Amino acid sequence: MLLAAGIMAGGLVAGGFLLGDGLVRMKAAERSVTVRGLAEREVTADLATWTLSLAATTTNLQTAQASTDRDAEALRAFFADLGFPESALTPAGVNVSNYTDDGTVFYTVRQRIVLRTKDIDRAQRAVRSQADLVRKGVVLEDGSGISYTFTELNAIKPAMVAEATRDARAAAEQFAKDSGADVGGIRKATQGYFSIDARDGEAGGWGIGDTPFKKVRVVTTVDFALD
What we know:
Layout: H1 2-29, E1 32-44, E2 47-58, H2 61-81, E3 89-101, E4 104-117, H3 120-128, H4 130-135, E5 146-149, H5 153-179, E6 183-191, E7 195-198, E8 213-226
Antiparallel strand pairs: 1-8, 2-4, 2-5, 3-4, 6-8, 7-8
């Protein structure tokens, strides 16, 4: 009986030691800091898309059609003079509508032509030269604005994620320094959404698409272990 009691006591002591050691190690494993890292980069758009809408309203459908046809030819000549290839322009549809005013039927014919180019400098020159179209009698409808797009996001994603992670680690190291600890490995990380906004002005505001100068931004959330 004495032997059995001794064995039991020894087992309890050993078990208590192992349990206590396990709790210490578990507590140490719970020590971590969660921080966010930011990466921003200024880029220039590599694609310009300009949807130009032409319209004419008369009491004769054929006359309205002929008017928009003349404007479309003037538009093509305008872009050809600026050095754009013919393939840069694509017809985007024709729309005909009518209404009656005091017994007279009026017809409106709309034609849309899309300019799509990667020549950003030439596209900007075209926008600045819109007054030449007005002098030729071509009036573009409201909404005929140019839009600049950055399409090479996948090419810069890895470097920006790495930069955001480094920024997060720098923040974690500051936290660790203040608490007398060392930063360990990454326990968990979450990549936020990439946003592309106008370089100048407020994010998400007016003018995002009509400037070729963009700002790409990503925020990562990283959970670092503390040693």
